[in-house]
Amino acid sequence: MIVFQVLFQRLNLKARLKQCFQPVKGSAIFGPHRIVLLLIVHLLLGFRRLRDVDYYRDDPLVRRLLGLHRLPDVATLCRTLAAMGRDSVPKVRQLSSALVLDALQREGFPLLTLDFDGSVTFTRGHAEGTAAGCNTRKKGARSYYNLYCTVAQSGQFLDVLHRPGNVHDSNGAHDFMMDNFDRVRTLLPATVLESRLDSAFFSHKTLTLMDLYGVEGTVSVPFERFPVLKQMIESRMRWRPLDGDRSYFESDWKPDSWSVTYRFLFVRRKVRRQVKGPLQLDLFEPRDIDHDYRVVVTNKTVSAHSVLLFHYGRGSQEGIFAEGKQHAGLDLIPTRRLLANQVVTLSAMIAHNLGREMQMLAQPRAKYARSKRPAAWTFQTLDTLRHRFIQRAGRLTQPHGEWTLTLSANPTVKKDIIHFLDALQKAA
């Protein structure tokens, strides 16, 4: 954790967290800002349950990182989370976004891609603010259905909109999009903004919003709802080749209720479906070749091939969700209190983002084609970082009044730690 200690100091994280809870009166020792910092450290270490704090409460480096002589017991931790003020959660959310924006401003990206999508977090119990909604994995389970904004270039969570599990995918999406567009535009006025959304966000308002903010983007189209689009697909005779399995055509079109015509791209992909029937003993099974169809609307003016590569690149957001849930605890609902669970979600986002931030400061950018807008670095997961240099036995001593961390003699671990420490100190 010595590397993250340097990163915390560079970001002034402890003081900025304290500002989030300035009006809140709590324990003089275990204030809410220290509890949130403990949560972030807890998730960085790879623990999930709150009671797992018992496994490292005697760790002197963790205590030093938090500025505590002893760690709070589980009851104090839960009690402080339950007492989180309604005004404090938006401040932590704002801080989470500010940490990412500071990094983006430092890196000076000429182009940024903001992806918006919802992600379900379900619970077996009855947590405050959860609701039974459209959950394909756990039907009938109560859940949250938060809406996230992620940055493709840094692989970080920029913002979150907390929602119950029974809302539509696009519920609150437009205000959420405007908030994030405004925030990025204010800090990075010269940066070209892009956005990618799935079919749940398809509407005239969404496209108008992107045009208003000068955001280039794509939106998947639920073409099954529009007989005209289905007819255009069925009657199309000439399809242009896109790659080995896909072909396309494009057309300008608008629904009757829209005031502006947009560019629609129609894509078909060859798929192989096995014909149902009796078991065949032949070497080759009978197959029927068919197509899957997709429609994308865009305000981009580049080639159709570039537009579609860009749109299909939004699958990288699913990777960010998966990593956040698997390695940073983004899917945790540890308490019954809504505000407490929201703070845990924000802590998980910060933990994930800090892992990316450390690598952005220490590693060079990757060099490859960026049509799909992949991450600008070859990132390693938090779990990989844990195995490399966090989960290492050591001894923290204070000979002659100076703190000293002694690790086992492993040249590879030493090389990694020195590399990250040097990079963080130079960045400071």
Structural notes for this entry:
Helices cover 40% and strands 20% of the residues. The chain is α+β, with helices and mostly antiparallel strands and 428 residues long. The chain has a domain at 2-87 and 336-427. Strands 1, 2, 3, 4, 5, 6, 7, 8, 9 and 10 form a ten-stranded mixed β-sheet that branches. Strands 11-12 form a two-stranded antiparallel ribbon. It is globular, with a radius of gyration of 25 Å. The two termini are 18 Å apart. The model is unreliable at 279-288 (pLDDT under 50).
Strand content: 15-25%
Helix fraction by DSSP (H/I, runs of at least 4): 40-55%
Total helical segments? 14
Secondary-structure element order, as H and E?
HHHHHHEEEEHEHEHEEEEHHHHEEH
CA radius of gyration is 25 Å
Q: What is the overall silhouette? A: globular
The beta-strand count equals 12
Span between N and C termini?
18 Å
pLDDT < 50 runs, ≥5 residues:
279-288
Structure class: alpha+beta
Mean pLDDT: 87
Main sheet, how many strands, which sense, barrel?
Answer: 10 strands, mixed
